[in-house]
């Protein structure tokens, strides 16, 4: 169990004090994948670096299985650090070492005997699927392969916690999915607690059970990923969720204003489906039941989360006010999350 | 010996005493190599102190950084020829003499080690901070980070810097030679210039150039072998 209790961190800068982390309270259960999402500068990295004692909190407690990490020093702190694996956005591998020697580095630091180091490193290479690349240097590997080395290295000392600090942010979408799948696999196989720091809601949806949303140093929303996706409460969360649900039309993703301009008539409605509903013919039911209503599909997306499918659909309803309201009531009855984005 | 003048005076090879040329070359080589070993060791230690005490909280670090920084800056700015004269009493104590190659070593080392130390400090600062942080997050001690990350990750730069330092050191040995330290510089000055034997000067120059080329070549090869960043 990891517990952040009233954790704050202030820095003093030339322009006065800066609060990087503001009164954060989070509990993370053993064996879960917990996501922390926020834009850069939200304080996510500062927060998790405190777990490792790389940053000290100004106030508050950081409790890992009954130990207040913020109070550890010297060799106790170094021992604690060995129990936490960390992977990074830019991999942070030593270019001067081969794959095998990079993975063996934490073992060297923990003073594991040489024969055992080699054996353990080879096991890990198999685990992350890098057989045959043991003697390559990082410069000979692709981004995805480098992050696999990073993961193997982070697991070398059999940690109980793995921190992933934007570990997929420098990777392309396919490689990101590969790395996330690997994280899921090791979470299940080793019962490892994983903290996933990211600004990509996609990564959170794919692997996390619970998520905390951070904004300007504070946690503004926490809950199961499924719930947060279905009913985002805060503006920033809605933004993250809708970014994820808006289909990726490369860089010309339409903003709400553009949508409204393009479809000035009627009402624009966002439906959110989850689980079995995503498979029901709800839209065609609406069309049949309200034949006088013109229904156009503007955009849509379906995402697989750890708790099942989650879909969103933006529709334009043009027609009689009463009919629209009836249709909305029907949708509500079908337990579909509805949100009127624009009332024409 | 010869009394030819003009352009031809450079090519009177029968005027060259090859035996003394050989022994002078040997003196230059060992003066350079021996002081180089000391300079690399001393330079890395001083560079490490400068790097590790830089911007660290605590008055102890501040004072150490200031003292080492001052030492380095002073000895880096004294012209070599003046440094030799300045260090004569110390040389006398350390080497027991003020002439010959042995006597050149203290001033060679003291002038070049601070030069190399500054280079070393900047090479350490160029090591990826992310990698250092990764090692720290693995629970490495400061010593562990130095030996397992800092030194291996800056190895090609350390070698390239040592090569540059060695080459300027060869220049210094020649300068030291002119005031009695032996070696090719001494030979070129005494047997060449003072005896109006231009051929000796030319041959000594060619040998020094060859020595520089060889040092540069060996340095380049080692940089290439140790640098695994681009393949």
From TrEMBL, chain A:
Single Gene Ontology BP annotation: amino acid transport
One of the record's GO molecular function terms: ATP binding
Keywords assigned by UniProt, alphabetized: Amino-acid transport, ATP-binding, Cell membrane, Membrane, Nucleotide-binding, Translocase, Transport
Domain of life, source organism: Bacteria
Any one Gene Ontology cellular component term annotated for this protein: plasma membrane
Domain ABC transporter: 2-241
Reactions catalysed according to its record: ATP + H2O = ADP + phosphate + H(+)
Cytoplasm as UniProt keyword: no
Function in brief: Part of the ABC transporter FtsEX involved in cellular division. Has ATPase activity. Essential for cell division and viability.
Family: Belongs to the ABC transporter superfamily.
Name of the protein described by the UniProt record: Quaternary-amine-transporting ATPase
UniProt organism field: Lentilactobacillus otakiensis DSM 19908 = JCM 15040
From TrEMBL, chain B:
Annotated family: Belongs to the binding-protein-dependent transport system permease family. CysTW subfamily.
Pfam family of the protein (one): BPD_transp_1
UniProt membrane topology term: Multi-pass membrane protein
One CC-aspect GO term: plasma membrane
Entry-linked PANTHER family: ABC TRANSPORTER PERMEASE, D-METHIONINE TRANSPORT SYSTEM PERMEASE PROTEIN METI-RELATED
Protein name as catalogued: ABC transporter
Originating organism: Lentilactobacillus otakiensis DSM 19908 = JCM 15040
Keyword Repressor found: no
Subcellular location: Cell membrane
Spans traversing the lipid bilayer: 29-51, 63-88, 94-117, 157-180, 200-223
Superkingdom field: Bacteria
GO biological process terms, semicolon-separated: D-methionine transmembrane transport
Keyword check for Membrane: yes
Domain ABC transmembrane type-1: start-end pairs: 25-219
This protein's UniProt keywords: Cell membrane, Membrane, Transmembrane, Transmembrane helix, Transport
């Amino acid at each position: 169990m990891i517990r952040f209790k009233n954790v704050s961190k202030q820095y003093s800068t030339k322009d006065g004090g800066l609060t990087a982390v503001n009164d954060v309270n989070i509990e993370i259960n053993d064996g879960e994948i917990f996501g922390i999402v926020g834009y850069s500068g939200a304080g996510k990295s500062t927060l998790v670096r405190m777990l490792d004692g790389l940053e000290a909190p100004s106030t508050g407690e950081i409790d890992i299985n009954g130990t207040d990490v913020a109070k550890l020093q010297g060799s106790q702190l170094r021992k604690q650090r060995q129990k936490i694996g960390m992977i990074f956005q830019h991999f942070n591998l030593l270019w001067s070492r081969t794959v095998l020697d990079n993975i063996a580095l934490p073992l060297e630091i923990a003073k594991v005997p040489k024969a055992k180091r080699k054996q353990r490193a080879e096991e890990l290479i198999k685990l992350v699927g890098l057989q045959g690349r043991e003697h390559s240097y990082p410069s000979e590997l692709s981004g995805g392969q480098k992050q696999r080395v990073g993961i193997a290295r982070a697991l070398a000392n059999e940690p109980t916690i793995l921190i992933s600090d934007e570990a997929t942010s420098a990777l392309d979408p396919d490689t990101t999915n590969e790395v996330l799948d690997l994280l899921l696999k090791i979470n299940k196989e080793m019962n490892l607690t994983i903290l996933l720091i990211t600004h990509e809601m996609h990564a959170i949806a794919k692997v996390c059970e619970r998520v905390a949303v951070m904004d300007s140093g504070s946690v503004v929303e926490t809950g199961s990923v499924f719930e947060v996706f279905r009913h985002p409460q805060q503006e920033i969360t809605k933004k993250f969720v809708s970014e994820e649900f808006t289909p990726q039309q490369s860089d010309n993703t339409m903003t709400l204003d553009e949508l409204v301009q393009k479809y000035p008539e009627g009402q624009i409605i966002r439906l959110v489906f989850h689980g079995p509903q995503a498979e029901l013919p709800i839209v065609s039911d609406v069309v049949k039941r309200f034949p006088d209503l013109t229904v156009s599909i503007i955009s849509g997306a379906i995402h697989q989360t750890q708790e099942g499918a989650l879909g969103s659909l933006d529709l334009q309803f043009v027609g009689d006010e009463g009919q629209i309201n009836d249709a909305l009531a029907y949708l509500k009855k079908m337990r579909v999350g509805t949100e009127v984005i624009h009332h024409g | 010996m010869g009394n030819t003048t003009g352009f031809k005076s450079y090519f009177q090879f029968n005027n060259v005493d090859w035996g003394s040329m050989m022994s002078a070359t040997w003196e230059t080589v060992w003066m350079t190599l021996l002081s180089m070993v000391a300079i690399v060791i001393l330079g890395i230690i001083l560079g490490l102190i400068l790097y590790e005490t830089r911007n660290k909280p605590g008055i102890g670090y501040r004072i150490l950084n200031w003292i080492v920084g001052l030492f380095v800056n002073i000895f880096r700015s004294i012209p070599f020829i003046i440094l030799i004269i300045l260090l004569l009493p110390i040389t006398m104590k350390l080497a027991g003499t003020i002439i010959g190659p042995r006597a050149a070593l203290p001033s060679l080392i003291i002038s070049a080690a601070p030069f190399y130390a500054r280079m070393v400090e900047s090479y350490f600062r160029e090591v990826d901070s992310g990698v250092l942080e990764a090692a720290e997050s693995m629970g490495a001690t400061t010593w562990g980070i130095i030996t397992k990350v800092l030194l291996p990750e800056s190895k090609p730069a350390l070698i390239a810097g040592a090569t540059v330092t060695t080459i300027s050191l060869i220049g210094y040995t020649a300068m030291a030679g002119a005031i009695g330290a032996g070696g090719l510089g001494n030979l070129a000055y005494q047997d060449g210039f003072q005896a109006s034997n231009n051929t000796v000067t030319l041959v000594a120059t060619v040998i020094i150039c060859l020595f520089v080329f060889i040092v540069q070549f060996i340095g380049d090869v080692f940089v290439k072998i140790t640098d695994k960043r681009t393949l």
